[in-house]
Structure formats: C-alpha cells, structure tokens
Design goal:
Elements: E1 11-15, H1 44-56, E2 61-65, H2 75-83, E3 90-95, H3 100-110, E4 114-118, H4 124-131, H5 136-149, E5 155-160, H6 167-178, E6 182-187, E7 212-215, E8 220-222, E9 231-232, H7 233-236, H8 238-247
Parallel strand pairs: 1-2, 1-7, 2-3, 3-4, 4-5, 5-6
Antiparallel strand pairs: 7-8, 8-9
Helix pairs in contact: 2-3, 3-5
Length: 266
C-alpha cells in the first residue's frame, strides 16, 4: 500500500484503550482528561477486522498502544488473536512497564515479539513525581521480566526536556548500556501548542519517511498522530477508512505545529 508520495505504508499503531494506570505530567493535566465511553471502544472482533484488512492492503508491522495497553481486560487474548493473522512480520507493544512483571511471559506465549517501555528517570522520587502515582520498582521488575521472556529487542523510551545530555537522560542511557537495552529519546511535547520533534535514536516524528497509520481506541483511522484528520471504520468501513487516511498522509510538518491534537496516547 503506497500513499500519494509513493511511500510504502506498512505500519499500523493500534490504541486498544485510552485508559492508563499512571498520570504522567507531560501526558495529561492534573485534573485528568475526558475518557471515551466503554460502549465506543472497539471490540476485539472489530480490532481484528481492522488488522486483517490492513494486512491485506500491505501492512506487516503492528504496534499495540494505549493509554496503557495492559489495563485493557483480556489483552493477552487480543495479542493472540492479532498474532494469528497471517502476514504480520512484527508485533510490538508500547507500555509504561508497571504491569509487565505479570504479563511479559503470557504476552510472549501469545505471540508478541517485542516491547518498548517508558522510563524517564532512575530516581524513585522523581519517577513518582513525574507519573504522580507510579513506583519505579514495578517498571524495573517489568523490564527484567520482559528480558527473561524474550520480548526483544527491548527498547526504552525516555522523555527529555531539550537534550539527551540532561542528567536523568544520561543515567537512563547508562542503565540501558549496562543492561543490553536500546534507548530512544523523545522530546516532551507541548500539550497546548501541539508541537513535536523527531525521536532521537529512532525514526518517529520524521514526516517525510513516515510509513504509519494510527487506529484510535474508538475506531478512527488517522494519517498522522498529531493531526485532527480521521476516518471512522464504523462509518466508512475498514478498507475505505484506511485508504482515505493513506491518501491524506502529510509529507512534511515534523517539529512544527500540525493541528492541535486531541488524543495523545501511544
């Protein structure tokens, strides 16, 4: 499947929930955010249909996101369903890691290939301050469980203010180097202005080479995570929603404002 700029679109990010068990300061205001009603959230069968149609159109990479995907009831079963679709070469998940100690082994058995885990500091007090409710011991246990389960290559997503040379970022990088983990630095987004930057150590945020589509938890296919453009799979049908979204993928815009975004999960 190719877009109007002849880029191969083969990567689908699936938000399975907008819920999260953390309240990170850079992700949501202290008062919280409006949540999608449960009746609007896609069922497992609807998600599987989107995956099957996407693979038929050329998608071979799937990433499961949230919110925090591990708070979705039955997530291991959903991973197993998705892993059973022929043609998927890479099935990954992005998680905050706090529940991975419990889920890592079952997820691997269900067919998950690898996982990205969020870790912005190694300081326990700072971690709790950033997440408002989190405990870093749970994340470190989740990282260890993911390694033991073979969910590799295991990548660490570290949010920075301006530079990877910040003290917390340097400590996270050293931790990754010592533990055979890959680290990617993600500049903190401006929630008011909708400004984002390229990922350091990864390929996210680079519009010119972007091969991704995004499925929101309530069934909207988006050509760009940071755009308000979206096509409802229930309204247009899965194939048409995908094709319309592919047709409107932007060519440029990285490190600029691209329509104030309304869903920041995943």
């Amino acid at each position: 499947m190719y877009d109007r700029f002849n880029r191969k679109i083969n990567y689908l990010r699936i938000s399975v929930t907008d819920r999260c068990n953390l309240r990170c300061t850079y992700c949501m205001p202290e008062c919280g955010v409006d949540l999608i009603s449960h009746k609007e959230i896609l069922s497992f069968e609807e998600i599987l249909e989107v995956v099957s149609v996407s693979v038929g159109l050329g998608v071979d990479k799937i990433r499961i996101t949230g919110g925090e995907p591990l708070v979705r009831k039955g997530i291991v079963k959903l991973v197993e369903m998705i892993a059973g679709v022929p043609g998927i070469k890479d099935l990954a998940m992005t998680s905050n890691g706090s529940l991975l100690e419990k889920f890592a082994a079952p997820l691997k058995k269900a067919g998950l290939h690898r996982v990205n885990i969020s870790l912005d500091t190694l300081d326990p007090e700072k971690y709790t301050s950033i997440t408002r409710v989190g405990h870093i011991k749970q994340v470190l246990a989740g990282i260890n469980a993911a390694k033991q389960a073979g969910l590799t290559p295991l990548k660490i997503n570290c949010v920075i203010k301006t530079s990877p040379m910040e003290e917390d970022a340097r400590q996270v990088a050293a931790f990754c180097n010592e533990n055979d983990l890959e680290v990617r630095f993600i500049k903190e987004m401006d929630l008011e202005e909708g400004v984002f930057s390229r990922v350091i150590g990864g390929d996210g945020g680079h519009c010119i080479s972007c091969n991704r589509l995004r499925l929101t938890a309530n069934g909207k296919i988006k050509p760009c995570l940071f755009s308000d453009l979206e096509f409802d799979v229930r309204e247009f049908g899965v194939e048409q929603a995908i094709l319309r979204s592919v047709g409107l993928k932007p060519k440029s815009g990285s490190e600029n404002k691209i329509n104030k975004f309304s869903n920041i999960g995943g």
